[in-house]
Design goal:
Chain B: Pathway: Cofactor biosynthesis; Fe-Mo cofactor biosynthesis. Chain B: This is FeMo cofactor biosynthesis protein NifB. The complex is a heterodimer. Chain A is α+β, with helices and mostly antiparallel strands. Chain A is built from 2 helices and 4 strands, in the order E-E-E-H-E-H. In chain B, the strands form 3 sheets. In chain B, strands 10-9-8-5-4-3-1-11 form an 8-stranded mixed sheet, covered by helices on one side. In chain B, helix 2 runs parallel beside helix 3, helix 2 crosses helix 11 and helix 4 packs parallel to helix 6. Classes of the chains: A alpha+beta, B alpha/beta. At the A-B interface, helix 1 and helix 2 of A face helix 8 of B.
C-alpha cells in the first residue's frame, strides 16, 4: 500500500514536510518529488486523509495504490475537463 | 507642514482651491503620523513618491501554498510572463541571502527585500524565516517585508515581529464567504483539504484575525485586493472600510490578470479583467475611506529593480556565484546614496509646496479634468523617449491639482517576441493602451508615433523633458485651458482607440 507522485509534479514542496512517514524525497534521477513505497503508509493511523494528496495543487500528480489519480482533472481547479480541452485547442490553433 | 492629499478626497467634493493644492497631490501618505511616514518613505511599494527613486526585490524561496486561488496556476516557469506567482528560479535561503546582498551592492537604491512566493511565504515558514533571520543579521540596512494570503498569519505574527519586518501585505479579496467560494476553490487547513464556502470562511477569519494581531503589534499592514468583475467588484468598497477600521494603512486594488494561456480557472473560463475605467472608478470609490495605492505593478515573485522594471536576468544564480561582495563597504556606499536620494526627495517636495503657494493667488480654473500619460524612467521627471517606454504613468490634471492615477503597460503581460499576439504592431498596441488620455509627455518622440498619436486624438508633447512630472502636467493643462481646449467635452473613447 503506497501512493505515488508522478512526473507532472511541479516541485512545490508543499507535501514534503506533511508526510508523517518521511516517505517523500526529491529524486535526483527524475528531478521531481517521489514517494518511497517502502515507507509510505497512506497516512494510516496518523491522519484521516492522505496528507500529500490533500495539499497537492496539481491534478493527477498523485496516484493511489491502484494507480488512479486521487485528484482527477477538474477536481482542484474547478475547470471542467471539456472546457480545458477546448481552451487548449483554441490556443493551439492560434 | 501640511500637504494636501487629493487621493483621499472624493472627486465630487472638490470646490475652492485650497491654499497650495495646484500642482501637488502625489503624496498619498500625507495624513500619516511621522513615525509611519519615516517607515515608508523609502519603500517603493508603500509610497508613490518613493517608487520613483527606490528599488525593491523579491526572492523566490517559498514554493508551497496552502490555498488555491482562481487567478493562480501553480506551474510557475515562464520567463516571459510578468505577474505575481511566477518565477524562473526557486532559491534556497542561502542562495536568497547571496542574491539579496549581490543586488544590494550593485543596485544601491534597492531598499526593500520582499518574500512573496511563488506560493505563500507563511506556508513555508522554515525557508521564509531562515531567509529573514539571516538577512536581518547580515544586511541590517535592508527593509524586510512579506506578502501572504493570511491563512497561516495568526500563528506567524510572533515570529514576524522578531525580524525587522515592519511591513506585511495581506491579500484580502472578500469578507463574505459566499463570494470567497467563487475565488478560492479550496484551502488546506488542519490536515484536510476544505472546499467551497466552508474553506473560504476559515480563510477570511484567519485573514481578519491576522490583520488585527499585526495592527496591535504596530506592524504596518497593506491590503491587496484583486478586482474581479462580477465577483467581488461591488464588494471591495466594503472590504476597504473594514480593513481600514481594523488598522490597515493602505489598500491596493489590483486588476485581475486572466488569460487562457496562463491556465488559471479565470483565464480558461473566460472571466474578464476590469477595464482601466472600472479600476479607477473603484479605486476612487474606496478612497473616501482609505489610502489607496495606485502605483502597484503586480510584479513577479522574483522581480528585481525599480517598480516597472525587472533586472532579474542580471542576477541569476550562476552570475551571483561568481560575484565577490564586500557587504560592509557596500553598506557604506548605500548609506551615502540613500541620504542623497532622501535629500533630493525632500528638496523637491519643498520646492513643489513653494511653487504651489506662489500660484495660490491665480484665478481658479473651472475646467474639466484631463488624463495625461508620462514616459519616465524614475526620479519623478519626464526623462524617457516615447518609443522606449514599456509603461506610462497616468496623471489626472484638474483645477484642484495633479494626481497620480495609475500606470499602463505597453506590452501588456507578455514580454515575448513582437510577433506573438494578433498581428497588431507594438506602436498600435501602445497607442491603444493610452485610450482616454489627451496628451502624452515624453523626452522625445519620433515622427511616426507623433502622427499616429495625433490621429488618435492624443497630443504628443516633448517640450518638458527633464522637468518634474507634476509641474509639467499642470503647465500643459494650463496651456490646454488657455487654448480653449477644455471648453469642449472630452474626446470620445473611439477616437483614442481607433
Amino acid at each position: 500500500m503506497a501512493l505515488q507522485i508522478i512526473e507532472s509534479c511541479v516541485n512545490c514542496y508543499a507535501c514534503e514536510p506533511l508526510c508523517p512517514s518521511k516517505a517523500i524525497y526529491m529524486s535526483e534521477k527524475t528531478g521531481h518529488f517521489r514517494i518511497n513505497p517502502k515507507k509510505c503508509t497512506e497516512c494510516e493511523g496518523d491522519f484521516k486523509d492522505t496528507q500529500c494528496a490533500s495539499i497537492c495543487p496539481i491534478e493527477g500528480a498523485i496516484l493511489d495504490a491502484l494507480g488512479v489519480p486521487i485528484n482527477p482533472p477538474g477536481s482542484l481547479t474547478g475547470i471542467p475537463p471539456e472546457r480545458m480541452a477546448e481552451a487548449m485547442a483554441e490556443l493551439q490553433a492560434h | 507642514m501640511e500637504l494636501p492629499v487629493l487621493n483621499e478626497t472624493p472627486a465630487a467634493s472638490a470646490g475652492g482651491c485650497s491654499s497650495h493644492s495646484c500642482g501637488t497631490s502625489d503624496d498619498q501618505l500625507g495624513h500619516l503620523s511621522d513615525e509611519i511616514r519615516s517607515k515608508v518613505e523609502n519603500h517603493p511599494c508603500y509610497s508613490e513618491d518613493a517608487h520613483h527613486y527606490f528599488a525593491r526585490m523579491h526572492v523566490a524561496v517559498a514554493p508551497a501554498c496552502n490555498i488555491q486561488c482562481h487567478y493562480c496556476n501553480r506551474k510557475y516557469d515562464c520567463s516571459n510572463e510578468s505577474r505575481p506567482g511566477v518565477v524562473s528560479e526557486l532559491l534556497t535561503p542561502d542562495q536568497a541571502v547571496k542574491k539579496t546582498m549581490a543586488v544590494a551592492a550593485n543596485i544601491p537604491q534597492m531598499t526593500v527585500l520582499g518574500i512573496a512566493g511563488p506560493g505563500d511565504p507563511l506556508a513555508n515558514p522554515e525557508r521564509t524565516f531562515e531567509t529573514f533571520r539571516r538577512l536581518s543579521a547580515e544586511a541590517p540596512d535592508i527593509k524586510l517585508c512579506v506578502s501572504t494570503n493570511g491563512l497561516a498569519l495568526p500563528e506567524s505574527v510572533e515570529e514576524l515581529s522578531k525580524h525587522n519586518i515592519d511591513h506585511v501585505t495581506i491579500t484580502i479579496n472578500c469578507v463574505d464567504p459566499e463570494i470567497g467560494a467563487q475565488i478560492y476553490p479550496w484551502i488546506f487547513w488542519e490536515n484536510k483539504r476544505i472546499k467551497g464556502v466552508k474553506g473560504a470562511k476559515i480563510l477570511i477569519e484567519q485573514q481578519q484575525k491576522g490583520l488585527e494581531m499585526l495592527a496591535a503589534k504596530g506592524i504596518l499592514v497593506k491590503v491587496n485586493s484583486v478586482m474581479i468583475p462580477g465577483v467581488n467588484d461591488k464588494h471591495l468598497a466594503e472590504v476597504s472600510k473594514i480593513v481600514k477600521a481594523k488598522g490597515a494603512f493602505l489598500h491596493n486594488v489590483m486588476p485581475l490578470i486572466a488569460e487562457a494561456e496562463h491556465g488559471t480557472f479565470y483565464g480558461v473560463m473566460g472571466q474578464r479583467g476590469p477595464t482601466q475605467d472600472e479600476l479607477m472608478e473603484l479605486q476612487d470609490s474606496c478612497s473616501g475611506d482609505m489610502n489607496m495605492m495606485r502605483h502597484c505593478r503586480q510584479c513577479r515573485a522574483d522581480a528585481v529593480g525599480l517598480l516597472g522594471e525587472d533586472r532579474g536576468d542580471e542576477f541569476t544564480m550562476d552570475k551571483i556565484e561568481s560575484m565577490e561582495i564586500d557587504y560592509q563597504s557596500a553598506m557604506e556606499k548605500r548609506k551615502v546614496i540613500h541620504e542623497a536620494i532622501a535629500e533630493e526627495m525632500h528638496s523637491k517636495r519643498a520646492a513643489k509646496v513653494e511653487k504651489a503657494a506662489s500660484h495660490a493667488d491665480e484665478p481658479k480654473l473651472n475646467t474639466r479634468p484631463v488624463l495625461m500619460a508620462i514616459a519616465t524612467s524614475g526620479q519623478g521627471v519626464i526623462n524617457m523617449h516615447f518609443g522606449h517606454a514599456k509603461e506610462f504613468l497616468i496623471y489626472e490634471a484638474s483645477p484642484n491639482g495633479v494626481r497620480f492615477m495609475s500606470h499602463r503597460k505597453t506590452d501588456l503581460y507578455c514580454g515575448g517576441d513582437d510577433t506573438c499576439g494578433d498581428g497588431e504592431s507594438v506602436l498600435q498596441q501602445t497607442i491603444r493602451s493610452l485610450a482616454g488620455c489627451e496628451a502624452v509627455l515624453c523626452s522625445k518622440i519620433g515622427y511616426e508615433p507623433w502622427d499616429l498619436l495625433e490621429k488618435a486624438g492624443i497630443v504628443p508633447n516633448g517640450e518638458h523633458a527633464m522637468e518634474p512630472i507634476e509641474e509639467a502636467v499642470m503647465a500643459v493643462y494650463k496651456e490646454m485651458a488657455a487654448a480653449g481646449k477644455l471648453d469642449e467635452a472630452a474626446p470620445q473613447e473611439e477616437r483614442a482607440t481607433a
